[in-house]
């Protein structure tokens, strides 16, 4: 305080009065620029950090009490017109016996964010949209956006865990990212004043990266797949699913869109045989369209013999070359929801793991075989750094095996 007094003492009373007047004028101009009283209980205002005008309608005589809504307009004249239309629509609704909603619903803002993601169209946006539609809208959809608080988020996760296993950290974080994006939009529209705290709202499960099967386990799994397939011999999906699992195991391709998106014309039969991967997680990135080798020097490989040739015959072609020529845009695997098929098989045949374990097993086996990490990374569409971080168990196992082999030779 004494420092402030020392500073002020350097100015004359006249200068201090002038500075105070200038400050008051600046504040009043700022307020005037961000708030306009249109009369009749209608006010336009801008929330801090927002470029759009919002309106407040307060006409107690007509039954309208402190109703707030974004005009979604940047221009003051457009916003003025929109505000009067909003006020008129409120009167029409009341005169028609329609009760006014107390506030905008979560669904309204969520749908705006869906449109935002569709327009932005980044690779991750389809996933974010699915989180909104499959998780957030079923629970929050009809709730008032202004009513969502810390407790609401915690209750959402409580409800989720009643019908699902505890979410992984990645899923929980992704849902929180999308929920926060929706609530930030609501805040910008002056519908809420703060964002709920998303931390410590759900106990996430620890997912061990790089789970894989040993060779004897892989043999048992494919034996069980063959037996499961024979239990319903007319079910073509089971036949194709068996081949699908072999494809995942032999190539390390990602299950889902990446594997399901492979078409016959993605097979490149030059000196080496390659499959071009266009869909899935890498779509829209520099790794989109990577070439995954399936046969060196054009020789017959397990991918060709055990997967692609049987698939061609199932689709009515004698050879792979005929499938490429006559049905270039047809997908190799015409399966719906392979993850659900796997769960059905795994439950019935008592198998541990998920479809993603085939990829982990492939990467682990390639490391144990001594393949350079750069080659493995190019094949599976990962970075060397990621493989080093998540598959260190395989690297250490290979080092120990090499040491044991050297010790045997020394003896």
TrEMBL record:
<keyword id="KW-0238">DNA-binding</keyword>
<protein>
    <submittedName>
        <fullName>Site-specific integrase</fullName>
    </submittedName>
</protein>
<dbReference type="GO" id="GO:0003677">
    <property type="term" value="F:DNA binding"/>
</dbReference>
<keyword id="KW-0233">DNA recombination</keyword>
<dbReference type="InterPro" id="IPR011010">
    <property type="entry name" value="DNA_brk_join_enz"/>
</dbReference>
<dbReference type="InterPro" id="IPR010998">
    <property type="entry name" value="Integrase_recombinase_N"/>
</dbReference>
<dbReference type="GO" id="GO:0006310">
    <property type="term" value="P:DNA recombination"/>
</dbReference>
<dbReference type="InterPro" id="IPR013762">
    <property type="entry name" value="Integrase-like_cat_sf"/>
</dbReference>
<dbReference type="GO" id="GO:0015074">
    <property type="term" value="P:DNA integration"/>
</dbReference>
């Amino acid at each position: 305080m004494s420092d402030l007094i020392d500073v002020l003492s350097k100015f004359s009373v006249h200068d201090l009065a002038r500075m105070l007047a200038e400050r008051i004028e600046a504040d009043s101009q700022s307020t005037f620029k961000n708030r306009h009283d249109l009369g009749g209980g209608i006010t336009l205002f801008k929330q801090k950090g927002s470029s759009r005008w919002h309106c407040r309608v307060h006409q107690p005589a007509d039954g309208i009490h402190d109703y707030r809504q974004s005009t979604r307009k940047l221009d003051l004249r457009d916003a003025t017109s929109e505000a009067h239309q909003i006020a008129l629509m409120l009167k029409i609704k009341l005169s028609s016996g329609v009760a006014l909603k107390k506030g905008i619903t979560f669904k309204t803002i969520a749908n705006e964010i869906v449109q935002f993601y569709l327009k932005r169209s980044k690779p991750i946006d389809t996933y974010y949209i699915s989180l909104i539609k499959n998780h957030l809208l079923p629970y929050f959809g009809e709730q008032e956006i202004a009513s969502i608080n810390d407790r609401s988020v915690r209750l959402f996760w409580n409800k989720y865990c009643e019908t699902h296993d505890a979410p992984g950290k990645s899923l929980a974080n992704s849902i929180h990212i999308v929920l926060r994006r929706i609530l930030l939009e609501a805040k910008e529209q002056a519908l809420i004043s703060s964002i709920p705290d998303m931390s410590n709202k759900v106990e996430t499960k620890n997912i061990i990266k790089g789970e894989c099967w040993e060779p004897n386990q892989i043999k048992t799994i494919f034996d069980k797949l063959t037996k499961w397939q024979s239990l319903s011999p007319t079910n073509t999906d089971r036949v194709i699913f068996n081949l699908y699992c072999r494809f995942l195991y032999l190539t390390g391709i990602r299950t889902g869109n990446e594997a399901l998106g492979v078409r016959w014309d993605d097979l490149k039969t030059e000196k080496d045989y390659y499959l071009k991967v266009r869909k899935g997680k890498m779509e829209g990135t520099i790794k989109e369209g990577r070439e995954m080798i399936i046969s060196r020097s054009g020789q017959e490989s397990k991918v060709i013999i055990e997967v692609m040739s049987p698939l061609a015959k199932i689709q009515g072609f004698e050879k792979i070359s005929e499938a490429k020529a006559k049905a270039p845009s047809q997908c190799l695997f015409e399966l719906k929801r392979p993850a659900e098929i796997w769960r059905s098989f795994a439950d019935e045949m008592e198998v541990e793991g998920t479809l993603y374990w085939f990829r982990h097993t492939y990467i682990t086996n390639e490391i144990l075989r001594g393949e350079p990490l750069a080659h493995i990374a190019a094949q599976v569409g990962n970075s060397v750094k990621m493989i080093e971080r998540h598959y260190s168990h395989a690297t250490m196992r290979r080092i120990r095996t090499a040491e044991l082999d050297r010790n045997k030779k020394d003896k």
